[in-house]
C-alpha cells in the first residue's frame, strides 16, 4: 500500500523552475535565475558584532525559548523601523516576528483561506505565494499589471466579481515584475479595501532596495490618509534582502484579531522564530549600522541594474522589451519575436543553459493565463563584468 497523502497536496505541483535550478551547478554558468541577494554584500562584521552582543548582554533571551509573538527588543526595533518609513503610531504589539516573510504568508493562508475561497494576486506574482495559498485550497485569480503595478480598475472589477478573501500585492519592486505601484494607485487600492471590506496583503521585502528616489510610502503607511483603511491592511516585512535571508527574520503587521489568530497558528507551527536570530537582528538594528548597509546595497544593486539595462538594449535590441526597474532585484522582460527571433522563453531558457547562462521563464509566475514570452532576470548576484558577458551569451542563445 502506498502512503496516502493529504488531498490538499493535489492542488499544488512542485515548481517548474525547480528543474531548471538543478542545472545551475554546471561549471562556468552565469546565472540570472536565482532570487537571492548577493552573499558578498552581507555585513558580516556588523552581524558578528550583533550576535556577540546578543550572547553577552542577554544570553537568556537569545538562547531560551521565547514568546510566539517575538522577542520584545526586536519588536520594539521593528516598530521604530516601520515608523521611520512613515507608518504612523506603530506600536511593538501591533506586529509579530515571523520566520521570514514566507511564514507570514503561510500564516495568512492558514488563518484566512477555506478550500474554494477566492484570492486575488497580481499576474505575475511570487511563485511561492501562489503555491502556498493553493495548499490551503484557494482558487487563485490573477489581476493584470503594467509598468505602474496592478491595474486598479481591473482589480475593482475582479473584487466585485470574485469577492475574494483577500488581495495579495507586492507593490514595491515586485517579484518577478520589478514594477512599482504608483502613489495614486496605492491610494485607490486603500479606497477599494474600505469600499468592499476586503483585506489587502502588502508583501514588501524589496521596499528598501531603491536605486534613486525613494518609492512612494507603503500601503500600510498610507492608511493614515484613508479613513478606516488600517484594519484592512496586513503588511509583511523582511530582513532577508538587505541583511540576510539566512537569519529568517520577517514580520507581520495586521489588525489585532488577525494578529492574534496568526500568532495562535504560529504557536503550533514553530513556537517562535529563532530567539538567537531575533536577538542578533535586534542588536543589529540598535547598532545604527542599517543606514550605511542600505546605502551600500542600493548603490551596488543599482549599478548592476543599470549595466543590465544597457547590455540588454545593446545585445538584444528590439527582440526584447522591458521597463528598467527602479529598485529590487529583478528585470521582467518580454520577447517580442522581432526579426523572426524566438518568442517562447521556455525554449530560450534551454538554449541559454547550453550557452552557459541561465534565467527563469516567466510563465510559472502567473496563477492564470501564463505569458510564455516573458522572463525574469535577476541582477543581484552577477557582478558588472559577468552581467555584460551573460547578456551577450543570452543574445547568442536567442
Ligand atoms: N515575498 C516575496 C515577494 C519574495 O520575493 C520573497 C523571497 N524571495 C519572500 C516573500 C520570502 O522572503 P523571506 O521569507 O526570506 O522573508
In the sheet with the most strands, the strands line up as: 2-9-8-7-6-3-4-5
Beta percentage is: 15-25%
Structural class by SSE content: alpha/beta
**Cα end-to-end separation:** 48 Å
The counted number of beta strands is 14
Superfamily (CATH H level) name of the largest domain: Type I PLP-dependent aspartate aminotransferase-like (Major domain)
Report the CATH architecture of the largest domain: 3-Layer(aba) Sandwich
What is bound: which ligands? 4'-deoxy-4'-aminopyridoxal-5'-phosphate
Count the helices. How many? 14
Major sheet: size, sense and barrel closure?
8 strands, mixed
How many domains is the backbone divided into? Answer: 2
| Low-pLDDT stretches | none
Radius of gyration: 21 Å
CATH topology of the largest domain: Aspartate Aminotransferase, domain 2
List SSEs in N-to-C order.
HEHHHEHEHEEHEHEHEEHHHEEHEEEH
- Shape summary: globular
Q: Give the class-level CATH name of the largest domain.
A: Alpha Beta
Q: How helical, in percent, are the residues?
A: 40-55%
Mean pLDDT: 96
Describe this structure as you would to a colleague:
- The protein has 398 residues and is an alpha/beta fold.
- It folds into 2 domains: 7-42 and 292-397, Alpha-Beta Complex (Aspartate Aminotransferase, domain 1), CATH 3.90.1150.10; 44-290, Aspartate Aminotransferase, domain 2 (3-Layer(aba) Sandwich), CATH 3.40.640.
- Helices cover 42% and strands 15% of the residues.
- The chain has helices spanning 16-22, 44-57, 59-63, 72-84, 100-112, 127-135, 152-162, 183-196, 219-222, 256-269, 275-287, 290-316, 345-354, 384-397, and strands at residues 30-31, 95-99, 118-123, 139-146, 149-150, 166-169, 199-203, 233-238, 249-253, 320-322, 330-335, 357-358, 360-361, 374-378.
- The strands form 3 sheets. The chain has an 8-stranded mixed beta sheet with strand order 2-9-8-7-6-3-4-5, with helices on both faces.
- Helix 7 (152-162) packs parallel to helix 8 and helix 12 (290-316) runs parallel beside helix 14.
- The longest helix is centred in the C-terminal third of the chain and has 27 residues, at 290-316.
- It is globular, with a radius of gyration of 21 Å.
- The termini are far apart.
- The model has no long low-confidence stretch (mean pLDDT 96).
- 4'-deoxy-4'-aminopyridoxal-5'-phosphate is lined by residues 35, 100-102, 126, 170, 175, 203, 205, 238, 240, 245, 250.
- This is PLP-dependent aminotransferase family protein.
- Homodimer.
